[in-house]
Structures are given as C-alpha cells and as structure tokens.
C-alpha cells in the first residue's frame, strides 16, 4: 500500500506541475502575439527608411559620415540581447554558442538580459554596460543603447560594433544571429535585413531600382540629411533587434511549456496505469487470501 500512496502523491505533484506549465504556455502565447505585432508594425517604416537610404547613398561617398568609416582590425564591442528569465528551451544556449563561434575572444560586451550577462561574467569577459528593457519594448528604451554604441564607436574606442540576438522566424524557429551594426556598410546601407519584417527577405534588384527611380530632393544637402538619418537608422536597427529577441523569447517559452505540459500529461497516464496495476494486484492478493482462508476452514 505504501507504493500506492507514493504513486498517488506523484500523480498529484505532476498534475500541479502541468497546471503551472499550461498557465505559463498561455501567458507566453499572449505575450508572443503582442511582440510579433510590434515587430510587424515597423515593416512599412523600415521599408520607406531603407528606400530613402538606398537613394541617398547614391548621392554621397563613403567618407560622408563617420558612421560609414570602415576601419581595419581594432577592438570589437558586442551588444548581446538575451532573456531575463529561463524556461525558454535552448534559446540562450544557442545564442551563446553563436557568440563563441563568431565574436573575437578579446571583445567587450554590452548586455540586455540577465541570462547571458551572467554567463559572460562567469567567463571573465569585460562588461561595459548593462540595460534593462520593459516588455513590450518601448522605442524610447532603444535610444540610450544605440546612443552608447554610437558614441563609443565615434570616440574611436571600438572599431566595430556588432549585435548578437535571436531572430524571430516563426513560432517554432528562432535563429541566433551576430550582425555588424557599425560601421554601416555603404554597399549594404539600403538593403533590407531579414530581421526587419519578421522573416521577410532582403530588398531585391527590382526594389532597389524602384527606390532609385523616386525623385528625391534633399534639403539642405544629401550630407545634411545623412547626418540626421543615420543615427535614426541605428536607433531603429537596435529597436528592431530588441523586438525580434523578445518575440523569440516568448515563442520559445510557449513551445517549451507546451512540450512540458504534454510530457506531464503523458507521465500522468503512465503513473495512472502503474497505479491501477498495483491496485489490481493488491485486490487479487486479498481475494486469494480470503479464498485460501475459507478453504482452510472447511
């Protein structure tokens, strides 16, 4: 009977766990929808900004702005966007592997999210700054991050600034990426990144030609417009990466919690079957004892 009591306790415990994981799955699904809508809302703005930059880059040279200045070698600064909480599968683990594979060993780091910040600190990497971002992501909170990255680059402390984040492709697919943010490549200035628009592709030749066909009049000058647009471009890039990372986090957590709930239900069925077998065996043993006693009394 002790075994039966143990199994009943295990069944009750697993049921309680299943209720928790089910609730976390529903919460993550709701947050994921909001984060995905937030990312999709920036598509039209990103399209128009990229088209203007495509046309603008044809009217300036690569030395027109310090953010376009290509530098050889030098120190690298990496913005790492991870999660504050766990229970989201291998999301942070895969991003950590990507960072170790593609980021230089002597790079410095700016972090958003507690998980990889702790991992990088334990590994002895140099941490320049850490930021906390609300959920859903406000655009205003991306500005100080972009401002810090830009100022450190313009001051010459770093010759390259990259961003490591999880790109939201679909509910089941989140792709870890390390993308160069600064210096901005003049050749790729107007290209549409995969993470701008949640899984949409890059601007093709047709889109590029359509952008160039527009008759823009730049006032006061192309260089003056560039001085205003490039910081805005960097701000929006950082913001979009934050949104993609947040959508990836909620998506991965929803999938992980659904898998945990399904496994818990499966485990409950197995425990219930084992409980019924033991209970049936106990009943059979009692019947045999009664039958044996009755025969002995005859």
Automatic annotation (TrEMBL):
GO terms for cellular component: plasma membrane; proton-transporting ATP synthase complex; thylakoid. It is found in: Cell membrane; Membrane; Thylakoid. The keyword Membrane applies. F-type ATPases have 2 components, CF(1) - the catalytic core - and CF(0) - the membrane proton channel. CF(1) has five subunits: alpha(3), beta(3), gamma(1), delta(1), epsilon(1). CF(0) has three main subunits: a, b and c. This is ATP synthase gamma chain. GO terms for molecular function: ATP binding; proton-transporting ATP synthase activity, rotational mechanism. It holds the Pfam family ATP-synt. Keywords: ATP synthesis, Cell membrane, CF(1), Hydrogen ion transport, Ion transport, Membrane, Transport. SUPFAM superfamilies: ATP synthase (F1-ATPase), gamma subunit. Produces ATP from ADP in the presence of a proton gradient across the membrane. The gamma chain is believed to be important in regulating ATPase activity and the flow of protons through the CF(0) complex. It is a peripheral membrane protein.
């Amino acid at each position: 009977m002790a075994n039966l009591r143990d199994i009943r306790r295990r069944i009750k415990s697993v049921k309680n766990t299943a209720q928790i994981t089910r609730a976390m799955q529903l919460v993550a699904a709701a947050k994921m929808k909001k984060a995905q809508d937030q990312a999709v809302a920036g598509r039209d703005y990103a399209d128009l900004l990229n088209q203007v930059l495509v046309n603008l880059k044809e009217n300036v040279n690569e030395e027109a702005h310090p953010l376009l200045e290509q530098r050889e070698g030098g120190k690298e600064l990496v913005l790492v966007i991870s999660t504050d909480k766990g229970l989201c599968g291998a999301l942070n683990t895969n991003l950590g592997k990507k960072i170790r594979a593609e980021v230089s060993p002597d790079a410095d780091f700016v972090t958003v999210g507690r998980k990889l910040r702790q991992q990088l600190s334990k590994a002895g990497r140099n941490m320049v700054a850490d930021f906390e971002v609300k959920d859903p992501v406000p655009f205003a909170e991306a500005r100080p991050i972009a401002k810090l990255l830009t100022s450190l680059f313009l001051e010459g402390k770093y010759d390259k600034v990259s961003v490591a984040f999880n790109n939201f492709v679909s509910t089941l697919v989140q792709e870890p990426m390390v993308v160069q943010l600064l210096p901005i490549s003049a050749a790729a200035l107007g290209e549409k990144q995969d993470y701008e628009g949640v899984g949409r592709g890059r601007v093709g030749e047709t889109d590029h030609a359509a952008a160039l066909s527009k008759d823009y009049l730049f006032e006061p000058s192309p260089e003056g417009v560039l001085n205003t647009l490039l910081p805005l471009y960097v701000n929006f890039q950082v913001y979009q990466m934050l949104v993609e990372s947040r959508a990836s986090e909620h998506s991965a957590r929803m999938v992980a919690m659904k898998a945990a709930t399904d496994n818990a239900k499966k485990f409950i069925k197995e425990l219930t079957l084992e409980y019924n077998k033991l209970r049936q065996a106990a009943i059979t043993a009692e019947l045999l004892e009664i039958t044996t006693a009755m025969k002995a009394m005859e």
